[in-house]
Amino acid sequence: MKREKMAKKEAKRRDELNNKQQLKNKQPADKGKAGASKEKKATKEDKMAAADMLEADLNIPPELKEIIDDSDDDLPLRFNDPEELMEIFSTLEEKNLFLIKRCQDSEQQLESQKQHEKEMKERMNKQINILKGNESTNMNRINKVILEKDALVGITEDSEGKSLDPVTQ
User: Fold this and answer.
1) Which of 12, 50, 42 is nearest to 26 (CA)?
2) Average per-residue pLDDT in the chain?
3) What's this model's pTM, rounded to 2 decimal places?
């Protein structure tokens, strides 16, 4: 139902625009300056009327209409010379390339440091395992020496129960 109403409104608007266009085309072409001025006014008025009708159909909120109607003509152009813009783009491109290169170098350094750390951990773990192995070997030797000492102490005691070991005397 809404679509039908909108289609009817659109058709009516087109008919009105066509009628205005036909009236404009029927007017004589050679009117002089005064006729041309009136014709330009009529064209502007036709455009304004068409725009108003379109806006009414679209139900544009006043805030948006204000933004649409706001003219950007009063803003100065930042770049007047195309070469100036190209120079700025070139400079930015060089800076970006420099930053990309720095980033790649940093990533490469980081990878190198990670690899160095990994190798150092492996070496340290090997050394720790070697030292642990030496520790257990040394503990076994110490225990063996203690047993041999205890055995010798038992042999060196004389019949009176005195030890010949100078440390225990």
Assistant:
1) 42
2) 78
3) 0.38
